Amino acid sequence: MRIGDLSAATGASARSLRYYEEQGLLASTRSGGGQRHYPETAVERVSLIQSLLAAGLNSATIQDVLPCISNEAIRTPWLADRLTSELERVTKQIQDLHRTRDILAGLVEQYRVP
Amino acid sequence: MRIGDLSAATGASARSLRYYEEQGLLASTRSGGGQRHYPETAVERVSLIQSLLAAGLNSATIQDVLPCISNEAIRTPWLADRLTSELERVTKQIQDLHRTRDILAGLVEQYRVP
DNA sequence: GTAAAACTTGACATCCGTGTAAGGGTCAAG
DNA sequence: CTTGACCCTTACACGGATGTCAAGTTTTAC
């Protein structure tokens, strides 16, 4: 599939897909004329990238953390620690968001027009 | 309390506190020489601001949503709708983060050095 | 009264994923 | 072929909270 198809399938803009590749997060092959082609599996990979970005990981971290193009999955304690630390961060973030949601819910209650 | 005390009490930098005031989120009185003074209640208010910022609300939205300096709480259907919409956004964000946390947990499992 | 610490305003810098525009090349259908 | 849709690279801009520097003023401690 070409970049437009992948974009349509994932909701990521073509710009973003090129950026992911530039950051070493997403691989593509090129046709004779230089256009990118992706395997079907790219859809899931982009979805994963989007999730991790939304969770607050930056592309360098994702690059470290995902088995990728030039970066075969190497099992090191360091990598496991890194992942665990990100996991803890996200878990804390979820807890904080719960608190914030409660605050917002309280405001909604308070501001509701009777 | 002065800005340094409030900063220490909340973890927000003095820069951020001035920014909150500039955005109409935080009030202060000034001493003769022009230095800001805050009531004790400012600590809680800053904490609230920080939560809402962390939840992805921008300062304009927070200004709309918080009963504030120049912006007395006016109960309008519009405001309730706005808050509700933010509440839904945060709720969805929490759901998405749960999914991402599971993904990260899976990676941790997978990369763990045996 | 003097020095140090804290504060003021203003301006510019940073991050980083994404948008967007320019100028040109590729590909498939008619 | 030609045409229109799609894609390429390069480069610059943005948002928005926060950092940081500069030059000057206020407050506090001694």
Automatic annotation (TrEMBL), chains A, B:
HTH merR-type domain: residues covered: 1-68
Record keywords, A-Z: DNA-binding
Gene3D superfamilies: 1.10.1660.10
Top-rank taxon: Bacteria
UniProt keyword annotation of DNA-binding present: yes
Pfam families for this protein: MerR_1 (PF13411)
Protein's name according to its UniProt entry: MerR family transcriptional regulator
Organismal lineage: Bacteria, Bacillati, Actinomycetota, Actinomycetes, Micromonosporales
